[in-house]
Design brief:
The protein is an alpha+beta fold. Helix content is about 40%, strand content about 15%. The chain contains four helices and three strands, in the order αβαββαα. Strands 1-3-2 form a three-stranded antiparallel β-sheet, covered by helices on one side. Strand 2 and strand 3 form a beta hairpin. It is elongated, with a radius of gyration of 20 Å. The N and C termini lie far apart (about 65 Å).
Length: about 120
């Protein structure tokens, strides 16, 4: 095998390895209750500080949280626990009443609160 073929083969293997690593992240969308822009900040901020989270975005109109993360660094369960710890319910995990009660009035989705724009 010529040195040029070895270099080409090595470069191809390296590029394939990089693509495999880059493809390790997954994106999940889940329902998370909330009302307003303050909810958006309260939901997204703690997630963005976690190792393994690439992006986290909550849409107040659809109540959908979209998270791109590395499942080798963080689990979906940990993401939902973090959301609940901030005071917000998802379809599979409810925030404690104690944490929920500390949310600003506009964020209290269980009580029919209405968000600020």
């Amino acid at each position: 095998m010529s040195s040029r073929s070895i270099i080409t083969l090595g470069a191809t293997f390296f590029a394939a390895s990089i693509l495999a690593i880059a493809g390790a992240n997954i994106t999940k969308t889940m329902h998370v209750s909330g009302n307003c822009k303050m909810c958006k900040k309260n939901i997204e901020k703690p997630l963005k500080s976690l190792d393994g989270i690439e992006t986290a975005s909550w849409d107040k109109d659809t109540k959908q949280l979209t998270v791109t993360f590395d499942p080798e660094q963080i689990t979906e369960k940990k993401i939902l626990e973090t959301v609940a710890g901030a005071g917000y319910d998802s379809d599979s995990l409810r925030a404690s009443d104690e944490v929920y009660s500390k949310l600003p009035k506009c964020c209290k989705y269980r009580d029919g609160g209405h968000g600020h724009e």
